[in-house]
Amino acid sequence: MRWWSVANFVSNAGTWMQLTVQNLLVLQITGSAAATGLSMSVQAAPALLISVFGGAAVDRWPRKLTAAVSQTLLGAVAFTTALLVALDRLDLTSLMVLAAVTGVVATVDGPACSLLGNDLVPPEDIPSAIGVGALVHQSGRLTGAALAGVTVGFLGTAAAYAANGLSFLFVASVIPFLRPARGAVRTAGAAVRGRRATDGAMSVREGLAFFARRPRLLALAGVTGVSAVFGRNYQLTLAVLVTGPLAGGAGSFGTVSTVLAAGGIVGAVLGARLRRPSVRVVGALAAAGGLLQVVAGLSPSLAVLLVMVLPMAVVESVSDTAGTAVLQTDPPPHLRGRVLGVWGSVGTVWSLGGPPALGLLMELAGARGALIAGGLIIAGSIGAGYVLRARRPAEAVPVDPPAAPEAATRAALGTAA
If we measure between CA atoms, which residue out of 33, 66, 35, 17 comes closest to residue 340? Predict the structure, then answer.
């Protein structure tokens, strides 16, 4: 698990370094902000369309081999981009094709690497492992964003892509040496036997049906969806709030972004201590985050906003960690890849639809109004869900007919024994 965490830190740093550079590269090639948004959409589109098939592939193929191959392919894409940039042969069409290929491979790589990390610890430690993964992700994000400017400044844009390619190869080289925990090995073996017993269990339809019939997962999707659309997009809402009503500049927003990242790290550490995460915990944390967002929208100054931003980021990070733990442990082992695939498609809808909807809300109500209204919608929706669930009539429990006196006596003695 330590080796896996180190490898993921290196890979996350490389990925965020490339993501930071990629938007600048598109602007450099096209000079169009619309083209930058298009490149991001092209890379996200495969997750919307074929994530369910990627999850099915993760359930069907050996997990370590799948993760190693997908990491190698992502490294090859990064090296190809670096070569084209170095030779000055990269145009918009080539960049879009490479972005689409990256998105396709990521539909398999995401669930494969997530579930592989869970295999390295006993089942009872999976929530902690997910928390460690969130901590590694946040740390790699900070490191990658910082390294991007240094790398481009001294070595050029191609070097950033090449560094990301090396980070993928580093992960691929570590995977063959990972040893799953004993409990995970038994679980994986049972899943493999189940797959051999019935080919129908490997269908994409079964993963969709399981997700649709599982109230916990549907509730988790609802909580996460409303939070993703009306909150969470703090890079958008807080940027407008800081530079607009609070009359700050780019430096002020940089300070806010740093506090958000620090809160994410603190939340990841706290999330790793969760032993029994549940949808109820996720909903309570999301509602608390919505109320904190309302207070942040009312902030009269940058200092007050900074005080509110830290707990907002902490609550968001703990909620995300708890939700990921529920998502990755609730389905049976042989269905987890497909459930993650379904979640990838659903999450892509939120990520693509959330920013435009939030932008429209800011156009109508301003930055403060969007934060306040969004926070109230989040807290109100989750609160309404709890009330409706509490008022739902309890299911009738069948009562056995009374037993004969002699049988009742034997039953009582047996219970006492």
Answer: 66
Q: What is the DSSP letter of 91?
A: -
Establish how many alpha carbons lie within 13 A of residue 229's alpha carbon, considering only the half-sphere containing its beta carbon: 18
Structure-token pair, residue 48: 């919307």
Do the Cβ atoms of 117 and 60 come closer than 8 Å?
A: no
The crossing angle, in degrees rounded to 10, of helices 63-86 and 92-119 is: 150
Instruction: Check: CB of residue 317 under 8 Å from CB of residue 131.
Output: no
Q: What is the dihedral of CA 255, 135, 130, 253, to 10 degrees?
A: 10
Direct distance between the N- and C-terminal alpha carbons of the chain, in angstroms, rounded to an integer: 45
Q: Give the residue among 305, 289, 317 at the shortest CA–CA distance from 381.
A: 289
Token representation of residue 304:
């007050």
Give the DSSP letter of residue 394: P
Residues in CB range of 378: below 8 A, 6 or more apart:
226, 227, 230, 231, 286, 287, 289, 290, 293
Burial class (CB in 10 A: 0-12, 13-18, 19+), 14: buried
Strands (E), 109-268: none
Q: Are 311 and 292 in contact (CB under 8 A)?
A: yes
Structure tokens at 15: 């990925």
User: pLDDT (tens digit, 9 = 90+) per residue, 205-243?
Assistant: 899 999 999 999 999 999 999 998 898 878 778 888 888
Cα–Cα distance, 200 to 395 (Å, whole number) = 32
pTM, rounded to two decimals: 0.80
Of 385, 364, 370, nearest in space to 293 by CA: 370
Summarised one tens digit per residue, pLDDT across range 28-40 is: 777 665 666 677 6
